Structure formats: structure tokens, C-alpha cells
Amino acid sequence: MTDRVLAIDGGNSKTAVALVDVDGRVLAQVRGPGASPQHLGVARSLEVFDRLVREVAGRAGVAGGGVIATHTAAYLAGADLPEEERELRAAVEAQGWSGTSAVGNDTFALLRAGTADGIGVAVVCGAGINCVAVAPDGRTHRFPALGHISGDWGGGGHLGSEALWLAVRAEDGRGEPTALLDAVVAHYGTATVAEAVRRLHLGEVEFDPNALCPVLFEVAAGGDAVARSVVDRLVEEVVLLARVSLTRLELLAEPVDVVLGGGVLTGTGGVVVDAVAARLGAVAPVARVRVVDVPPVVGAALLGLDAVGASPGAESRLRAAYESEVRVG
Known about the structure:
By secondary structure, the protein is of the alpha/beta class. It folds into two domains: 4-114 and 294-328, ATPase, nucleotide binding domain (Nucleotidyltransferase, domain 5, 2-Layer Sandwich); 115-292, ATPase, nucleotide binding domain (Nucleotidyltransferase, domain 5, 2-Layer Sandwich). The protein is built from 13 helices and ten strands. A hairpin with a 3-residue loop joins strand 1 (4-10) and strand 2. Helix 4 (106-113) crosses helix 12 (296-307). The model has no long low-confidence stretch (mean pLDDT 93). InterPro entries: ATPase_BadF (IPR002731), ATPase_NBD (IPR043129), Euk-type_GlcNAc_Kinase (IPR052519). Keywords: Kinase, Transferase.
């Protein structure tokens, strides 16, 4: 069997699976729904992953009933604690997709996607927020990333909920005036925010706080001080995550990459990224802040290629395939 790597990027909102050969050629790729074990449970998540894996094998012309790759590199949202990683790795190995497997948090795939060697810091802000770091000597630093109970602040859902909270208080007098009031009313198509809250409470409208996140950034871009304060708080949090990680690994004075990813950070242009670079530069002057320019599944595939000892040319070939896809898309 030609050496192949099965790469899985399992996020909260979507899953990407790719099958690549040891030379970095993409044999097939598929995308599917999010299947975080925290939301669906391990068994249901593996059902989703297995369906996508068998689909990608079929598209690549590989017999789909047994081993389809030399190595599986699965980097998943919800693999936050060591015991969760162990459970997920055992579940992945039980699927029989490959001879060897590695399972880790999806933020490590983001870090590898944004660097040449997987060294540095990665901060992701999508549905949630997380940060991991890897030093040149292999030491790692990470946060539990379990939400509010583990000290997290940020993520699309959190920011969207904050926008609604501020709009409610602006309307009922407990908060400061803000253009978020009119923006949230327009978003829900109601006469008042109070009416939107009533409908949300009664289940007449589904509450998707992530959908309010773009509203927050749009209002902030218009100069609203209240909305802008939330965006500034996000910048502060991203810088804090990166700074703490760099400090713990003694990398503040080293020229390492700080990779930013996730829909919230990549979807705001330079509003957050430029501010993060400026503030982080004050404490880590030679750190290189950059936004990842290929999908995280590329990072999962690269970690897999690293594991099987692929040649350096495999990385450039794989990146070129996805960079072309990004340009066309």
C-alpha cells in the first residue's frame, strides 16, 4: 500500500477530512458537519467521522472497508484534557482506518498550518476561544479551554450573547446607549429588543448567539463606543493568551510565530489582527503575528506527514494545493 495520511480537522461547526499521499498530493477531501465529542458524545462523533472517512476513501478510489492509510492524524475540538485525548485516540484506533494514529486538540493543527515547523503559539477564536504553544525543545503550554468554568472569555457565541445583553440593557435603561440596540432589533425583525427576548425565551425564535457576532463587529466598525469596548476586550484577551504562553515557555524574546485563526479572527480583516500585533509587539517585539492562510485540515495533514517522515517537498506540494483552492474560492 502506498503510504497515505488520513487527516481529520474536527471543529465545532464543521469537519474536514483529507486523504493525502506521502508526497503531499491530495487524493481526496470532504467536508461535513461539526461533530464535537463534547456536544454529540464520543460514539456519535465517531459515527460522523467514519462516514466522512469512508466517503473520502471512496473518492480517492481506495477500498473503504478496512485500512485506508498508514497513519491517522485527528485534531478535534473537544480534545481538551489528557483523559479526553486518550479516550478519543482509543476510539479512533478502534475504527481501523490506519496502522497508527495521533489525536490532539484542533488548535495544534492550526499552529502547524500556520508555521513551517509547528513551533510557536496559536490562538483560535471561532465558536469558542483557545490557545496552545510549542517550544523548540518540544515543551507545550495550553489552557483547558472548557468555557467560562476554566476562565475563558471570547468566542463567537460569547461575543454574540454580549451584543444581545448590551442591547437589552440599553433599551431598559440599565446600560449605556448603543447602536447595538437598533442593530439587534433589525437582526430579529422585531419592534423592540424586549420582544425579541420574549420570542427567544418562548422558543419561537432559535437563539444562535454566533449569528450576532458579525452584528457586533459591524456596529463597532461604525464607531459605536460600547460595541468597540467589546472588540477591544477581545483584542486584550487574545494578547493575554499569547503573552502567557510565550512567558511560560520562555519565548518572549524569541522570533516565533503567533498564528491567529478561527472565523471570528479571520473574518474581521485587520480590526482585531492589527491591534493584536501592535499590543503583543510591546512585550514580544520579535514575535511574528500572522493569520493562517490555509485550512486547519492542512495542519492535521502536515502533522501526519511529519509522523511518517515525509520529505520537505511534501509540505510545499500540500500547501500549494490548498493555497490554489483558497485563491480560486
